[in-house]
Amino acid sequence: MEFLVHIAEGFIGMFQQGGKTFVGLLTGIVPTLICLITVINALIKFVGEERINKFAQKTTKYAVLRYTIFPILAVFFMTNPMCYSFGKFLPERQKPAFYDSAVSFVHPITGLFAHANASELFVYLGIANGITALNLSLGPLAIRYFLVGIVVILIRGLVTEWITASMMRKRESQAL
Fold it and tell me: Membrane-spanning residues where (predicted)?
């Protein structure tokens, strides 16, 4: 009988923990995201959606810019997770690759600009503790993270764009 009570308590405990996580999200990141979305949408309205779209088109015209400058701007200004909303300025065929680039850049930017992904700062700080224990400067580490991050997001963006295009062609050929 005690075994069944233990299972029942564990079962309901799982849902209680889920409820605590849900409340944590509702009192933590959700209001922040709602405020950020509201401000960004207001900014887009003030500046003008046409101007924002023109700027986005200029910074995404070439794949090199689309998977370097555009995700860097998104992550720097919008931070994680709001940076992914920059994808709305891209055609559907480029959105997966942009997301892949942006999500891949939220860690490399942390060393120089901690505000961009403060929730994951512990990853960088864990490595930084080892560097400082060796009495080395963190500056070169942060810069290397940033530069390597740019190379990685470019490669990931190009590969994901190629995969997306292949999958779209396959789907179109199957539809015929």
Answer: 22-44, 64-87, 142-163
C-alpha count within 13 angstroms, C-beta hemisphere, residue 90: 24
- Please count the residues of the chain: 176
Q: Give the dihedral sign, CA 75/79/81/83.
A: negative
pLDDT at 44 over 70: yes
Task: Report the C-alpha gap between 41 and 45 in whole angstroms.
Answer: 6
Full-model pTM: 0.71
DSSP 8-state class, residue 82: G
Domain locations in the chain?
Answer: 48-175
Helix (H) or strand (E) holding 62: none
Contact 60, 127 (CB under 8 A): no
Tens of pLDDT, residues 97-123 = 999 999 999 988 988 887 788 777 777
Rounded Cα distance between 3 and 41, Å, is 54
